[in-house]
């Protein structure tokens, strides 16, 4: 647990004590370990709450922080761990819908929604009222008065060392990051709440995007080998700037 807590605190910029508290309260700790070195390279605490979604009971899986070592981003590390958590939940209650809830602690967190799911909240084109009601119910259970329905944020009152200036300039005006750039306040620990229903349409989209990422990574390695095993330092960034590649990836390779 100590290694996972340090990994999370280092990557999301939150105090170690706050991350340790989240892990102590969680129902499950998702951990991904490198098969060769057995080093923890990805971690996220999970809490479960119940809410209503479209008139039916729903299981909400809240991941307080998701951290992945840079070398493992784009390898669908936490997607696989998340799938196992989802399957465990559906085994217990197969007929109950499941929704994933998390805080956008960094711009990468926000882009996880737009780069993986077909339906999510908050959406730049307008929010689904039913999903918004579920988010409000779950957020009120998890954070009480710290939840703001007006801005869709939670204020944790724990200053972070992160900064909105960390967001690359070419991402700052994107519609999918508008809520993040407008409402995030690292000095107060205020974060945008995000959600994605884990239904068949979204899982199919996750699978499609994951496959495209795998193909893109394979092609980039092949280009590096073609250049005499000397992959140019700017290759990955150049690929990320092409339209087809940018549809599935981002600079830091979620």
Secondary structure topology:
Blueprint: H1 2-12, H2 16-25, E1 28-33, E2 40-53, E3 56-63, E4 67-68, H3 77-92, E5 98-104, H4 107-114, H5 129-143, E6 147-148, E7 153-155, H6 178-183, E8 190-197, H7 200-226, H8 235-240, H9 243-246
Parallel strand pairs: 3-5
Antiparallel strand pairs: 1-2, 2-3, 2-4, 5-8, 6-7, 7-8
Helix pairs in contact: 1-2
Features:
globular, alpha+beta, 8 strands, 254 residues, Aminopeptidase, eight-stranded mixed sheet
What does this molecule look like?
With 254 residues, the protein is α+β, with helices and mostly antiparallel strands. 41% of the residues lie in helices and 20% in strands. Strands 1, 2, 3, 4, 5, 6, 7 and 8 form an eight-stranded mixed β-sheet that branches. Strand 6 (147-148) and strand 7 (153-155) form a beta hairpin. It starts with a helix and ends in an 8-residue tail after the last helix. Mean pLDDT is 79; it is low at 230-254.
Mean pLDDT: 79
- Give the second-level CATH assignment, the architecture: 3-Layer(aba) Sandwich
Number of structural units classed as domains: 1
Q: What is the H-and-E element order?
A: HHEEEEHEHHEEHEHHH
Task: Give the structure's gist in a few sentences.
The protein contains nine helices and eight strands. It is of the alpha+beta class.
